[in-house]
Amino acid sequence: MRNDTRIKIKGILFILMCLILSGANQMISQPLKIHTLHVHGDAHIIQTPGGKTMLIDAGSPWHSGIVKNYIDSLGIDTIDIAYVSHFHGDHFGGFTGEDGILASLHVKEFFCVNEENAKEYFNHLVLPFSKNPDIEYHVMKKGDLIDLDPEIEIRVLYPPDSYPDRGKNNGSAACMITDLRNGKKFLYMGDGLEHQAKDLVALYHDDLRCDVLKYAHHLQYESDDQYSLGTFMEVTQPRFGIITKHKMSKPGPKYHDLTIQSLEKLYDYTWNSQSGLKSLYLAKHGHITVTCTEDGIISMSASKNNLYIPPEIVASEDPGVKNGPLILTMTLSEPTWDQYIEEIRGCYSMDGGATWNEFFYPDKQLKINKTTTVLMKARDVYGNSSDTKSIEIVFPSAVDN
Ligand SMILES: [Zn+2]
Prior knowledge:
The structure is a single chain. By secondary structure, this protein is of the alpha/beta class. The chain folds into two domains: 32-302, Ribonuclease Z/Hydroxyacylglutathione hydrolase-like (Metallo-beta-lactamase, Chain A, 4-Layer Sandwich); 312-399, no CATH class. 27% of the residues lie in helices and 28% in strands. It has ten helices and 20 strands. It has helices at 3-25, 64-73, 89-92, 101-104, 115-126, 194-204, 227-236, 253-272, 282-285, 337-345; strands at 32-36, 43-47, 53-58, 78-83, 106-112, 137-139, 145-149, 152-158, 174-179, 184-188, 212-214, 240-243, 278-281, 288-292, 298-302, 312-317, 326-331, 365-368, 371-379, 385-394. The strands form four sheets. It has an eight-stranded mixed beta sheet with strand order 6-5-4-3-2-1-14-15. The chain has a seven-stranded mixed beta sheet with strand order 7-8-9-10-11-12-13. The longest helix has 23 residues, at 3-25. The model is unreliable at 305-312, 330-334 and 342-401 (pLDDT under 50). Zinc ion is lined by residues 41, 88, 90-91, 191, 217-218.
């Protein structure tokens, strides 16, 4: 081999080494991802920076196929921890039986609340079907830390050992997930309603502040619950909220009315509190994914397009200029309660995001020519900001000559 060829090869090897070493130094840590699945009940898949997986609840049994397919689509075949917030069918059901998650995936550990429930339900509905025959249950209580990934803290906030209704709605396991790389916090409430929300505030005060709040699954269960979507919101101050109602409401006037009331409270809080809260709703957005990068940037994505009420755009001629450009006025009001609720009602039937309801530039007048491209940045009725979109507006008759 000629000398200069050898030098060239050495040079290339040296450059390759440098690239590999600099790559190792700059190895980017994986984002924390939490997927909330569009099922009846609650089902959340947590993917940690270190590649671990936890499942908080698994929805109702008839939707376990959706959960399995979603997990499959993420390329996951082992669940490190299954976490049951409480033993109601819409949270626990998806884990159980021969079609349940534990029957089809290797699950290493199982966390739940309430020893008596665990003995009965775990031993009869989970263990006989479990792919991992050695799995055992662990009973969680307030103050426990769940060891999943050194970069993530999972702190069980509730229920206390002494709480009599452990395992029921207000005795759900609530937990705060903290991304220790950046301090971002994610609060998961199970079904915990007024009683649990009050207890949590009494126990933790400002430590409940979070970036993302998964609301109690049923939002509120009694019409006089002024707390869950009132004071509790002011204490927790989330920037993002996740509503895990998979349809507008359950059949029956009670739940329907309560859902409307809950959404009304959330609407009031969203628009009156200056909180900048953005809530996503399973029934409207489909599967919802929260991503938190190493440097603490949180973003939300959803499997369905947002649905929007069209803006009111009025075009008029500039009175001072004959055959001149048109003046385009966009009316950009805050959505009314009627629009808000109408949109939710229509969440399966509207036009899939082709129209937009609100702009950030109220009553802005734009002069347009034959065709004008307007950059629009919209937000929907929940305050979710959308991407900037470019539209072309054509008014041929007024400016033809
Ligand atoms: Zn529930």
